[in-house]
Specification:
The chain has 347 residues and is of the alpha+beta class. The chain is built from eleven helices and four strands. A hairpin with a 2-residue loop joins β2 and β3. It is globular and about 60 Å long. Bound molecules: zinc ion.
Length: 347
C-alpha cells in the first residue's frame, strides 16, 4: 500500500498531513485514527480483491472524509480536522448520564444496559466512537466499490459532507450516497455484533442494547453535521441547520440520510436476527433517547433532539417520498445493482 502512496506524494498528486512534530497527545490521536482506517481498509481490500489501495490524512481543518480514484488508485482519506473534532465530540463527559436510557425501558432491557455499564471491558464512549468510525469508513469504502463496479475511466473524488457552495445536484450522485449510507449502516451492525461476541456474558437483551447504541452513534454523527456543530471547537455551540430540500446539492438532505440509515439498519436486524424480535418503536425510542441524553450534555438548553423530531415530523411525507425515489433509482443503477448481486442482497 505505502509504495503507491510515496509515488503520488512525489508526483504532488496528494498532500499528506504530517503530524509527527505535534504534541504527544495529538500524535496519539492521529495514530489511533490512522491505524483504525488502515486496518479496516487492508481487511476490506483483501476481501474484495482490490489492488492499489491506500489511506491518508489530508490537510484541512474541517471534519471530512473522502474516497477517490486517482490514476487507477483507490484512495480513502480523512482530513486532519476529522480525528481532533470527532474525538472532541465523543468525549466521555458527554456520555456521563447515558445510563439514564436504562430507565426508559422495560426491566429486561434496563438490566442489560446496567450490565453493560458495569462491564469493565466495555466503554460506551469508545464503542460510540468506533461505530462512528466504522460508519465513515464503510461509507467511503462503498464509494470505492461503486467506482470499481462502474469501471469509470476518469478520476473521481467524493467528499463525505454536504457541499452547499456548489449546487451541483445529480440524481445518480444522490443515489450513490444513499447506497453508501445503507452499506455503511450494515457495517456498523456487523461491528456491534462482533463486540457482542466478545462479551463474557451474552444474552439477547444485551445484543439489542448494543444495536441501539450503535445506531444512535450514526444518528449522533449525522446530527452533529445537521446542526452545524461538528466543525466548532467552541464549547458554546451555535446551531446552524440546513433547510429541508430534496433535489439539490451534492448529498441528500441529512434528514433523508438519517431516515434511510435507520430504516435499513432496522430491516437488517430483523432479517439477520429474527430471534431478537426487534421492535421498530423500541429501536427508535432508544436511539432518540441516547441521542437526546448526549445532545443535552453537549449543547444544554437548546433542545436539539426536540428540534430534530419536529423537523422529521414536518417533512416526513417528503422524506419518505424522496427515499423511495432514491431506492427505485438505486436498484436500476448498473454499478449498484452489480454490487447488490455480488453481496447476495435481495432488492
Ligand atoms: Zn459519500
Amino acid at each position: 500500500m505505502d509504495d503507491i502512496k510515496e509515488i503520488l506524494i512525489e508526483k504532488g498528486i496528494i498532500k499528506v498531513f504530517d503530524y509527527q512534530e505535534l504534541d504527544t497527545d495529538l500524535i496519539d490521536t492521529y495514530n489511533y485514527f490512522e491505524n483504525k482506517f488502515q486496518e479496516l481498509y487492508q481487511c476490506k481490500a483483501d476481501i474484495f480483491h482490490l489492488d492499489n489501495c491506500f489511506f491518508y490524512i489530508s490537510n484541512s481543518y474541517r471534519c471530512n472524509a473522502f474516497a477517490g480514484r486517482i490514476e487507477n488508485h483507490n484512495i480513502i482519506g480523512i482530513t486532519n480536522g476529522y480525528p481532533v473534532l470527532i474525538k472532541d465530540k465523543f468525549n466521555d463527559n458527554f456520555f456521563s448520564n447515558s445510563l439514564c436510557i436504562a430507565f426508559l425501558n422495560k426491566k429486561s432491557i434496563s438490566d442489560a444496559y446496567c450490565d453493560l455499564h458495569e462491564d469493565q471491558n466495555f466503554k460506551l464512549n469508545e464503542f460510540v466512537l468506533n461505530c462512528s468510525i466504522e460508519y465513515t469508513f464503510g461509507h467511503e469504502f462503498q464509494h470505492i466499490l461503486q467506482f470499481n463496479s462502474s469501471k469509470i475511466s476518469k478520476d473521481a473524488l467524493y467528499s463525505e459532507n454536504l457541499d452547499i457552495i456548489n449546487n451541483d445536484f445529480n440524481l445518480k450522485k444522490h443515489t450513490w450516497e444513499f447506497d453508501a449510507d445503507r452499506m455503511a449502516s450494515y457495517e456498523v451492525l456487523k461491528y456491534a455484533f462482533s463486540v457482542y461476541t466478545n462479551l463474557k456474558n451474552k444474552d439477547n437483551e444485551k445484543l439489542k442494547c448494543l444495536f441501539y447504541i450503535a445506531l444512535a452513534s450514526i444518528v449522533i454523527t449525522k446530527n452533529l453535521f445537521y446542526f452545524g456543530v461538528m466543525n466548532q471547537f467552541n464549547q458554546e455551540y451555535t446551531i446552524n441547520k440546513q433547510d429541508f430540500y430534496t433535489k439539490q446539492f451534492s448529498h441528500p438532505h441529512p434528514l433523508v440520510r438519517i431516515f434511510n440509515i435507520i430504516d435499513y439498519f432496522y430491516d437488517n436486524v430483523k432479517d439477520d436476527f429474527p430471534k431478537l424480535e426487534i421492535d421498530s418503536q423500541e429501536l427508535f425510542n432508544n436511539v432518540l433517547g441516547i441521542s437526546t441524553l448526549y445532545f443535552n450534555n453537549l449543547i444544554p438548553n437548546q433542545n436539539v433532539m426536540e428540534n430534530f423530531n419536529q423537523d422529521i415530523k414536518d417533512n416526513i411525507d417528503e422524506i419518505y417520498r424522496y427515499s423511495q425515489e432514491l431506492y427505485d433509482f438505486a436498484i436500476k443503477d448498473k454499478s449498484i445493482k452489480k454490487l447488490l448481486k455480488k453481496r447476495g442482497i435481495k432488492f
